[in-house]
Fold:
Amino acid sequence: MSGPAGRFAPSPSGDLHIGNIRTGLLAYARARQTGRRFLWRIEDLDRVRAGAAAAQLRVFADLGVVPDEEPLVQSQRLDRYAAAVETLSAAGLVYECYCSRRDIQQAPSAPHAPPGAYPGTCRSLGEAERVRRRAELAAAGRQPALRLRTENAEITVADGLLGTITAPVDDFVLRRGDGVYAYNLTVVVDDSASGIDEVVRGDDLASSAPRQAHLGGLLGAAEQSWLHVPLVLGESGARLAKRDGAVTAQELTALGWSTADVYAWVWRSLGGDGGVDLGDRPWATIDDLVDGVDFAQLRREPSVFLPPTAADASTFADGTAPSP
Structure:
């Protein structure tokens, strides 16, 4: 298949929690509403738990969501990432970095660099110094990281929910010192190859969009649009995590939640029970979500999920009964 597409790209590090699931369902709904293909990417270059990728796909299949193509698996695409780095290197835009995290934290900021930016320690080293530093790392069983040479300029992208996102683009990592290709590189290469022209994902990744837009331009990728949706938080106000209790699909199923209950909670979490017109009754299926969600009026505030316990498994955390 060809043509524009949207995607969901979870890391197979464990079971998906309800916040991840809501983001994936919104990505699917947006693709269906706009006539895009819905694709799935398995980002398995870093933290991987055996069987997690298949389990994540099963959860979405149970919710009525099946990708339009076989999932793209990042660990099978190392040659594509290497080729992208070679393209950038040939343009003089890649250099080796020998710094540890401590080195970066302790180094003084570079003049005119934004706060938190890489200070440029290894940017202009002479060849003799590079040979020495490379040998030191090799003796310790390590290799240099590879960084993109930038001008620390601020880049602005448009977002369908957040308006404009402006962030500085520093000399960010393309390949880590352990040889793993970095997220900002792989996501750009894979989105371009798959025809992803709109990215729907959690707003915790919004600050990455300017970096990815800049890198995409350097690699000749088509321009993308962005839609960063609000996160689901735990009771503490921090991003929802598995330590918060029964938050995964498997845990909620064990407590008696049905597919309809999941969709009813998504409806409530997006404002369906007050303030946002998402239909007269809670959703029960993926078709209800696709027909009912209006991204133009999607609220920007995060939602809070209070995990049910065995004692209240028959009701939602807000006290309302699950839909039958």
Notes: The chain has ten helices and twelve strands. The first strand starts at residue 5 and ends at 8.
